Each structure stands twice: as structure tokens, then as C-alpha cells.
Amino acid sequence: MPAPAQAVKAETNASQQPFIPEQYVDAPSQRLYILSIGLLIQAIKVFDWLQSLIFSNSSTNLTFKWLLVDAVYLLTLKRLRIPRLNYAASVVCVQILLLWLFDGVLFGSVQIGVSRYSLTYTAREYYQNELSQGVQNLFGGDNLRGEHTVRMSPISTARLNPGSLSFCLGAPSNFVLVPILLNNTKPSHIRYSIRQLGSEKVENVDLNTRDLKAIESTRLESLQLTKTAAPQQAEEYNEDDWDEEDEEEAPPHTNLLGYSNYDLEETQGISHLKISKPGIIRLERVLDAPTSNLARVLPNEITIAPCPQASFVADKISNGDAIRCLGESEELSVKLVGVPPLSVKYFGETNGQREYFSVDQIEGKPGMEGQAQELRVPLDMSFDVAGIRQYTLHQVYDGLGNMRTLGSLPSTRSPDEKTPTPSEYTRSVTVLRRAGVSFKDCGPGKPSSLLIGSEAHLQLASRDTDPKDSPLAVTIAYRPPSTNTTAKNAVSPWRKVISYPSGRSSFPINVTAPGEYSVVGVKGQTCPGDVLSPDTCKVVEEPHPSAEIELKRIHECSGDTGVSAYLVMQGKPPFQVHYKQKRNDEAEKEMSRVFQGSRGDITLQPENSGRYSYWFTHLSDANYKRIKLDGPSISQTVHPLASASFVFHGATGTGNRRAINSCSGNTVDVEVDFRGDSPWNLELQVSGPNGVDTIHLPGLQKSRERIKVPIPRSIDDEGGSFQIDLVSVEDVHGCKKALAVPGMSVNVRRVKPSARFYSQTGQRTTTVLEGKSVQLPLRLSGDGPWRIKYQRTDPADLPRTTMIHSPNDHLSIDKKGVYKLLEVSDSQCPGVVDEEASEYTVDWIPRPSITLSQDSVVTYDGYNGSFIRAPICEGSDDFVDLDMTGRPPFQILYNVARESEVGGTRILDQPVISSVQSRTRLQLLTSQAGRIFYEIKQIGDANYPLAQNKDHVIPRNDRLLFEQSVIGRASAQFKKSARLSHCLRDTFVPSDPLSSDDIILLDGQPPFSLDLSIKSLATSHIHRETVEIREAQWKVNLPKYIFTSIGPHQVTIEAVRDASSCKQSVTDPLRKSIWVDVAESAAIVPYDRREHFCVGDVAQFQMEGSPPWTVGYKVNKKYHEQVAKSSPFILTPQQPGNVSIVSVSHQHKMCRSTVENIEFQVHALPSAQIANGRDYFEDIHEGTYQAHIVFTLEGEPPFTFTYQRSEAPARRGGKPGKVLESHTVSGVMEHEYSIYTALEGTWTVTFISDKYCRYPPVSPEGSGERSK
């Protein structure tokens, strides 16, 4: 280890070693010594504190002394570094602060709020004022002895519906059992009244004992049936555990049973009223059977109304018409019956996806408050998703707190549950997709072939076909070809409907005639369908194949080397040519050759010499097989040139023929490469459906020539395909060579691709929710993919281009406006846009709006765009009406803000209110004074609920703003509750301009009118004065008032008024008044001029001057002296005799003055006993006997004593309960007094006084009596 590191480590170890090495004093001994010293210090501290209580030493010096001692002790402990007592510096600081806090509480004055607390002063006051009384209670606490307890049977009472439950009536045959709590009563007769809802008609109903027994029997039978039918529910809703929350969750039969097992006392019981008609029930009288007395009926009434009902109104769905088509919507109507305001909860479910809704606070008709009403609430069903859409009513609430569960949530039903939700609470529809039908593998530019004498099979394809909507009715139209209208076997146009069966993606149609077939209509069993593209299919009749064969001998300047057959074939490739060969006298051989194009050549160059014969027999193409061919024959005895070929730039296909496309013009350009010596003479052949044309092109000079080839007229008119083949080429030497090179196939398109917007009704408009994407249907023709160029024209936007891969695809749009198709092109050619169907209008469903009702009395402020409501006093009720547009129910989110004192506003709340009506009432906030602002931030309706549009808020410039000034009620209070000091004959003006003790704070609108009262406790004189103030705070300044008497004066704020007409607010009683001490120099004044005191009484004296005071007094001519740090000075005589005040001084015994005429006599305390000082129990019966209670009095008459009656204890030896009544008897000259009573309770004496004294004595503060 390096030397510096070792030095640092050694220094660290040295700093952690004890200050006193352990070789002199070990660590445990050091801990014992230092902790013993600490305990000794704390013991001395407690001794000093007890000494200060007895001898009234100055606690300030003791405080500083012990603060210093504790700090030195803890710092010394830190310095000694004793193991296990060596704390960190932060811990030592905390220890010092805790001990200082303890010293401050024990000796000093710890500031707590605006008051000062000193344990020394508190203990001294207790020692001086309470200790003597405690000794008195210890040795002479038998001044008031004895108890007389009278017990009797409880009072008969009856209370209707003790649990404040809610009851309602279901079906007309149902009833409810309303409980009556009886105390010490066995009813023989009960009378109750029923007042009809909405009427003053009252009906009285009397029940006798038989009726009550029948009701109880009905209750028990219903309870037994319920337990038998549903033991689990009976256990869950046990009557012993019933509470108000169970009422909401209980089964419907709960209201029938009543409630019998309350937590009853021994004298209590339960009876029930069987109510079967709605009304306001009131218990009028109950007759007790044993005593034939009327029980006391505690006032209470209960409103019983029909249970709230909710059900769907009968409509098409309930009548069996429960199938709808995608994109439709329907409005349901819910019938609500009950006492408004009503609320209903329901949920919707689509293919397992559930949403929850509620409509709250549905108000009823004006003038029918409190009555059951029938209301209608609209609910909207939108069918935008295929599947099963179901709405279920879940719960309904009325204005009396009754709730009824209608349809249960699917998740709460067990898998084995058989009972579904009744149809009146649910509406379920099946939403079907719209089927679409088109031709498959056939369309414009892609006709279907028809062979002569056979049938063509056209395929129909369907999409999005629902089995419940099958079979489909597809309307097919036929139009014969225009070239055959004059033929004898011409077919007339027709239209027929075919049935497209269910479950098939395609369906064949067999046709026997050429022409154009079109799908013109699609109709399902319920929903209309769509005609998809391609919707037309052209059927073309294919002719038999034919061939023109030219045979030539192969002669290469040296003779014949074979035969070359040149074939020109008509039909649909590929072609297969069958021919035979015979050599000399050998047998014939049949051979064939396949050609992919309409032209071909066969070179027959046998390897052996001889005479050969060749002839052609049959021809096959793609449509027909082995058609007999009347071809040429040749016989021959079998004994390099210029060439040319096509250049295939941009051509498609492989093999012997490549294809190019032609979209416009009557010629097509092809390029030919020549080999040999120029110029060349070229012969080419154009093969079309109606024949073959040969074109001679002489004198071609370039090695690559672009040649314009005319398109055959028949193909140029209607489109199709034709072939171009090179026949021969002749060079400059005159050598001509026949060519058999790959030809060129030309596809001529005369049917241009097209594009249009599709609409079944012809109206190309749609309305969707704002921000939702919409799919605009397209119908395209041609060969995909298509390139579509479109533009939003209103409002104007830049053109856009998109690729479409299906002829029935959609254009995805997410903004409203008018969209126009500009251009279309498919994979081959540019196309045309149908101008009549080129525009589609997309509009948004308008969002809900909100305005202030015209009935609201407001003033518009154009500066900030706010409506100003008339000012109102704080705490008053006010509201505004709001009008809304949209589809109910509505939700309104608004901000409530208050003008801040430092400028700006502060948001107080952001509530949400709901309304099913287009007008709602918004309650204004008047509980806080100030300028209150209201800002409508968001509004939602059925189309745009707030839960799904949280990010959409009303633009700040468009928000509805209104405000109101809430005028605060005027108030006034003293800033501090400190005591003021004044001298005798001073005017009531501020003595210290910098002090804030006498400042009054005023709140409200100046100017203020302040009513003050000044009461002198010495003279009981009250001076009242009204001051006009224009500031928010006022320093008490009453120059007209002069303090003419010494002692405390109470200055009280009686009333305050400001410029508004609002009532005064309640002032804090602690800040409503202050005290002013008026004193002379070094004077002592008794609170009362009594000449007679009692042992333990408190003699209070008002001290005048500056504390502390030193008071000298004599007790039975023995001189005593006591220091008073505060006024009043309290003296408690502990023995009978003569007491006199002889002197008083203040300011550390200065200004001493001799006191005369303050002298009084101290007397012993009187005593009283009940039942000779014993605890006596006596039982009586009500109305038959009265208890005799005897009071024994000791002292000097006349006596005045107070006795009280408390609740009797439950058992002997128990403590009495709360005090029920108290009485005072005066002027008793005898030593015994008695009373008679028939009331139950425990009788005790709480107070007695004789001629001079009283017991218990008055408390030192003189504010009440001390209890025993």
C-alpha cells in the first residue's frame, strides 16, 4: 500500500477511537458514567421545574440555563466518541433540538399559532387553583352523596318504516309489507291513512288483531315459498343482514316479505301494514292491547308508488320483422312508467361486442309532480355492421329511489339458465349483407366462345351473400349480335329472372345463342343486391377451322431437295394439321404438325432418295377436332438465301408468336430486321377473322425498317386480334426465300376501359359521421389493374392518383366534399370516365350544437363574446336554460372558472350533464363569491357521444360563454385576537400606529357601515357606535369614546353592511370581538364585592398596571405574598377565617400601593344527601304509584339546591346515563326536603348552597360549576 494511503487510513482510525483511551476506562464503563450523568441532569431539571411551581421562580432564566446545559452535554458526548454512543453530526443536531423543544415546553413559552403555551405556567395555575379543590374532594368529597333510582316499564311508541326504506308496487295484484317498529306495545288496533298521489283525498284504514295476524301469516307464507324456491337467494338476502343496498340487488319478491328481524331490544317488536294501492302512507294511531292506551306515534310517512316500468313499444321487430339490411337505421321507442325524474340503463350488443348506455333525469309533464307518468324516449338503432344487433333494457329508476332490474347482462346468466330476457325488454335484429353478382371469367374485351351445335357455359359469381337472404333473384338480359338481325334464325332480345341458390360462390348459365348477356338486377329474399362488374358477357360463335395450303418444291439452284408446304389457317390456335406420306410403294404414314399461329410451313426433306407423295387430310384447332380437310397433294422425285424477322420491342408472349396491343388508329407499327443485300422486296400477310391479305413492300433499304400495317376493317370497328406473318423476302440478286419465322399477334382494343361511381338508386351522395372513412363504390371495365385519377372539387383540392385492382373496388375517402373522377387507364389502354356518374358527394352528419335559450335574461358583451347574467348574492339559487340541436340523448361538458385575484381565471370544476330533451337547465355556481365564468367545451349526442369523441372540442372562438358576478356577503372580523391595553380616561384611539392588534378586516363592496359595541364588564355599560368605512381594513379609532372605568372591556362587531343588498355572512366567533384591558397604576380590584367566601372558592381580582404583580394578603392575620404574572389574580382560601388584601405592586415590585377595604370572610361548605347517602333502587308501575325521594341538607339555612334526573342504569351498580332534566329548589329553611315522582330515572343532587356557600364551588374562571 502506498505511504499516503496508509497515512490517511491511520488518521481515519484515530478519529474514530474514544477520546479517553480504553486502556484507562473501558467502553462499557464510559457508557455507564456518561448515561448516569445524563439521568442526573434530567432529574435536577425536574426538581427545578417543581421548585418553580411552588416558589413562582422566573422560568425564563431556567429556560436559558437548561438550553445551555443540554447542548453542552450532547456536544461533550459527541466529543468523547464513546462506542455505540458516537452518533453522526446530524443525529446530534436532532437530539439537541428535541431537548430544546422539551425545555421550551417545560420552562419557557413555546409559540403555538397566535397563543403562547408554557407547561410551568399551566402547572402552577393548576397547583394554585385546582390542587386545593382536589384535596377537598379527597378528604371532604362527601358533600353530595346518595342516589335514588326509579325504574318503570318503557313508553309505548310506534314508528312507521324505521329503516327509511323504499317500497313500490308491481303488478295490480301485488302488495308490499311496510314495517312498524313497536316499543312496549302489543297492538290491538292500528289506523293508517292513504293520501292519493297528486290529490288531497285521504282514506283511513283500520286494522284489528285478526287483520294483523292475517298480514303476518301472509308474510310468513311468502317467506317460506321464497326460501323453498330459491334457498341460495334466501341465504344471500337474509333478513338479518338486510340493508338499503340489498334492496337494490334483492330479487323482485323482497318487497312482499317485509322485514321482521331487526336488531331489536327486549321491549321492541315488528308489525306490518299490507299496502296494495299507491299513495302517501301515514300512521295515525296504535292501540296497545294490555293497557288499552294509545301508543305514541312518531311522525313519519312513506310514499309508495307503482314500481318503475320500462319496455319497448310494439313495433315491426316485435311482430316478427327482425331482419334488416346493412346500412339501414331504425328508431325504437321506450315506454317509461313511474314517478319522474326517471332514468333507464340499457346495453347494445353486436356480434359479442357490447356497449353500455344510460339516459338520466327524464323529466315528466309539468303540473304532475309526484305522480306516476307514462313517458316515451326514442332510441336509435344503426345497422352498420352485419350480424346480430341487440338492445336490452337493463334497469329503470324513478324519482323516489325505486329501482327495477329488467333484462340481465349476458355475462351474469349461468350457462344452464333457460329463461331468456322477455321480449318487451329486448330488441334483436339480424343485419344482412347486400349481395353482389357479376360474371366470372367473362367481360368487356374478354368474350366467351360458343361452338357450333353446342352450349356455352357462363359463370355467375356472388359476393357477400347471406344464407338468410338466399336464394337470390338475378335478372339476366340478352341482346343478340347486330350482324344477325336479318338472318332467318335470328333470336329476339329477352329478359328473364334466374334463381341463384344458397351456398355457392359461382353458378353456371348455359346459353346456345351468340350475343351480349347482361346482369341488370339482383334481389335477395329481404335485401336488394348490387350489380358488380363485369356485368356484361359477350358470347361469340366460333367457326370451323379451315386452311389454305400451297405446296412448293424446294429448289436450291441445284435441284429439288424436298417439298415446302405453306399453310394459312383460320380458327382459334393452336392448330394441328394431319397429313400422310408415301414413299415409292411403301405403306402410308400419317403424321401431324402443331402450329400456334394461323400460318405455318412444313418442310419435307426426306433423307433417302425416292419418289414421295404427300397429301393433307384433317385440321384441328382449339375449338374443333379433326375437321376433314380437302387439301392439295404433291408427288416429287427427291434429288443460302435472304431472310427477315420481326423485332419484338414491348411485345408479350413466348414461342412462335408474340403479341402487341393497339388502342387507337387504323394502323399498327411493326419493326422488321433484314439480312442480306439491300434493297429487299418483302411480302407479308395479315390474317383476320374474315380472310387473309398479302402486302408487298418493295425497295426496302434499311436493315431495320418500321412498317405500318393496316388493321382489318372488321377488327378496327369492334376490336379483336389478328396476326402478321412474314411470307417471303427477295434480295438484290433476285433470290427469293420463303420465310417461316415467328409472327406477330396484334390485340386491338376498341372497347376502352371505363370508370364510374356506382349507386343503386342513382343518388351518388352519402352522409357519414365526421372523421369516419367512407368507401365510395366504383364500377370499372377493362383489364386490371386500373390507375384512377380523381379530385375533390368542392372545396377545391389537388388531383390524386390511386391504383385499383378490382372492377368493384372502392375509393377510400375521409373528408367531406364533392369528388370527381378525372381519368382512368387499365393495364393496356387509357379509358374514359362516365360523366353522368363521375361525381360523388360526401357530407358529414352535423355535430350537435348548443345555444343559450332566448328565454334566459342575459346581456351580450361583444368585447369578449360572453353573455352576462345579472349579479346574484352568494348562496342564492340561479340557473340558465340551454337549447341543443342534434339527436338525443345529449351530454354537455363545460368548464366552471373563477376570476383569480392575481389576474386570469382558475378552473373550479369540469362537470358533465346529460339530457334526453333538447332543452336543459344548467345550475349556476353561487357558493363562491367572485366572477364565475362558464364555458361549454364539448357537446355530444347519439351520433357523437363524448366517450368516443374526447379529442373533439368546440373551437375556442365558437364556444358558448356566459358569466355571472356572485356578490359576496359582507363580513368583518378582527385581524388578531390579542388583548389591548389602555389606561383610565384614555380615548379609544390607536396607541401604537405600527401594531396590527386592533385592525378590523372587511370584505365586501365599499363603503361599509360598521356597528360596534363596547361593553365594560365593571359597570356593564354598553356603548354602541356606527362607523362609515371606505377601505378594506380599518384600525379601531373611536375618539368620542373615553374609558371611564377600569377592568376588561369587550369590543364586539355587531353588524356590517356594504354597498350591495346581500345579507351579512356569519362571522367567526373567535374573531368577532377583542378585549381591552383598562387599568390604573398598581391597582387591584376584586371582580365582585363579596364579603363572604367559602372554602375552595376562587376569589378573582382584576390587576391594573403592567405584569408581573406582587400581591400581599393576610389569612387569619398571617401575612402571605404571591406573584401574579397575568390578570386576573386568583386566590383560593383553603380554611375558614378572615382574609384581607393589604398591598399590590407591579413592574417587579415597583409602584406598591396600600390596599384597603378588600376583606372577606371564608365559610365552610354545605352538603346534601339522598336516601341517607346510599344508592337506592326502586321499581314502580306507570300510573299506579309514585316514588318518595327525601333530600337531607346540612349547613346554614336558607338552602338552595339543584337535583337532576338521569337515565336509569341497565343494572344495579351501573352508571346513570345522560341527564334528562334538572330542577332547582330555593328558600328551603328546613334541613330535610322531599318530592314525589312517577318518572323513571336516577335522582342525584348536583348543587347545594346555604346562606353563604355553595357546593360545588364556582370554577376559577367563574364560567361554570365544577362537577363532582
Automatic annotation (TrEMBL):
Span of domain Nucleoporin POM152 N-terminal transmembrane: 26-110
Keyword field: Membrane, Transmembrane, Transmembrane helix
Domain Nucleoporin POM152 immunoglobulin-like, residue spans: 542-643, 880-946
Span of domain Nucleoporin POM152 first Ig-like: 157-296
GO function terms (MF aspect): structural constituent of nuclear pore
Gene Ontology CC, one term: nuclear pore transmembrane ring
PANTHER family linked to this entry: NUCLEOPORIN POM152 (PTHR28206)
Protein's UniProt name: Nucleoporin Pom152
Organism: Schizopora paradoxa
Lineage: Eukaryota, Fungi, Dikarya, Basidiomycota, Agaricomycotina
